[in-house]
């Protein structure tokens, strides 16, 4: 299979990345090479093989659902590029 | 001329405890060679004031008889670990000006053991790279110089390239790194030092900026295997704040260093011998085999049939996880923000300016393989192949105690080489990625020099949570190889 410029553009939009026309062209070419190389996985028979998401072999620990941290808005907001009192800000999203 | 910089971590520890040198004196010496070796670009941020303050507290404890295990040992921290009050960049522009208000668990453990922070090390952006050429803060130089490429500086490997170069250049006694597909071991091999990737779960990931969460693991880069054992002991441990952190006692890794390999069964997987691989890599492996055999180990020819599929599997799983992890960089809560006409415009502008080319490439690969219609064909398929790769390790470890392989398929190359060919760059990790996918521990130990007079390492891979045996065999190999060569550059 091969990725055309349109597909790359759609994927870039999903990832919130903007590529100009020249970058789209170059990226499509690079990604096609990478996916052509990845296609060697077609040789592997994976029927009846379970997908592996974690190597730890143990189930995730549980804890009580209670607040254990917090109450320091200034620390939380100390790296915000922009803030209004105790809030992060974004460009206006509702009219 | 013998210098205080010649002391490895274990010797410095004993000199400090015997009060032959003070922590402040040792720290000042490192700070001074750091500033005279700026051109290597090992550090993004130096923290001299913090270092001297920590060192003087160490001296105080040593003098009052309350010395901690790492008191007064000056170390460097890969800039992927969040450090309270100290700029943390992940080698990226998108974290512009980010100063964490908390400390990563691994660095917290090190400071609680008395270690002294010299600064934050350069690295490939978000740990994505094998040459340390993708950093927003510029490429790192390897202190080694090739015989036939006298003029062109070489890469230190990546992604923990700043950490590896700092240790090899004697600009730190040891350093932390992180390894997702080889990012500790490959730079260890390129720089002629020891690099240890522990078992997944041995060190907490809390406060370490995430790349691929099912693979990321912190570990040490050091001058000797003993130093790696000392560092790992201090870094490791269960952490309730990381749900994948292993709830296991941390052994005293140093006491595992007996050098005794008699009776051990050491597997050499035939799939790690590649067509077209430089003959010197194969020769190095034969040298390692001969040393371990002479020391009394039994060498076993083994097969791990899915080895060749590890790298393409990795290049689905790691970018998929990265695309999710890196979604958080949106210009709202921290780091860079480029204003836009609306929310999406702000997101796109921020991320397009903030991320470098390799990071964007991997976000795109990851987004694509997770997108509707492709998830089963790529992501689920890769996870199934990952099962088979892990199974290869499970089966082979029924028959052998550890595996011996090359660490990397070549010696260090020139800065700029391979930059235009992603796949060629990815192939650097061909021998390190399988252990990452399986989660098992592995160490790279310097064993010899290439024909260009550059260091080459061999890798010992062990069973889950069997760092002790990995370190024991690594230590034996180190002793027999007697690698004493020093780079031309550095302090």
Give your account of this protein's structure.
The complex is a heterodimer of chains A (95) and B (491). Chain A has three helices and two strands; from the N terminus they run H-H-H-E-E. With 95 residues, chain A is mostly helical. Chain A has a domain at 5-41: Histone, subunit A (Orthogonal Bundle). A two-stranded antiparallel ribbon of chain A has the order 1-2. The longest helix of chain A has 18 residues, at 21-38. Chain A starts with a helix and ends in a 7-residue tail after the last strand. By secondary structure, chain B is of the alpha/beta class. Chain B has a domain at 7-263 and 406-481: Alpha-Beta Complex (Amidase signature (AS) enzymes), CATH 3.90.1300. Helices cover 36% and strands 12% of the residues of chain B. In chain B, strands 1-3-2-4-6-5-10-11-9-7-8 form an eleven-stranded mixed sheet, with helices on both faces. Chain B is globular. The mean pLDDT of chain B is 96. At the A-B interface, helix 1 and helix 2 of A face helix 9, helix 10, helix 11 and helix 12 of B.
Write the layout of secondary structure elements.
The complex is a heterodimer of chains A (95) and B (491).
Chain A lengths: L4 H10 L6 H18 L34 H5 L5 E2 L2 E2 L7
Antiparallel strand pairs in A: 1-2
Chain B lengths: L8 H9 L5 H13 L7 E4 L1 H16 L10 E5 L26 H8 L3 E6 L39 H8 L5 E6 L5 H7 L2 E4 L19 E6 L2 H11 L29 E5 L9 H16 L3 E5 L7 H16 L17 H12 L2 H14 L4 H22 L5 E5 L15 H5 L6 H6 L3 E8 L5 E7 L5 H15 L10
Parallel strand pairs in B: 2-3, 2-4, 7-8, 7-9
Antiparallel strand pairs in B: 1-3, 4-6, 5-6, 5-10, 9-11, 10-11
Helix pairs in contact in B: 2-3, 7-15, 9-11, 9-12
Give the helix level of chain A as a range of percent.
25-40%
Q: From the 3D coordinates, which CATH architecture of the domain at 5-41 in chain A would you assign?
A: Orthogonal Bundle
Note the overall shape of chain A: flat
Distance between the termini of chain B: 12 Å
Question: How many E strands of chain B?
Answer: 11
Q: Order of strands across the biggest sheet of chain A?
A: 1-2
Instruction: State the total count of DSSP E strands of chain A.
Output: 2
Average pLDDT level of chain A: 93
The oligomeric state is heterodimer
* Portion of residues within helices of chain B: 25-40%
Count of helix runs of chain A: 3
- The CATH topology name of the domain at 7-263 and 406-481 in chain B reads Amidase signature (AS) enzymes
Q: Beta-strand level of the residues of chain A, as a percent range?
A: under 5%
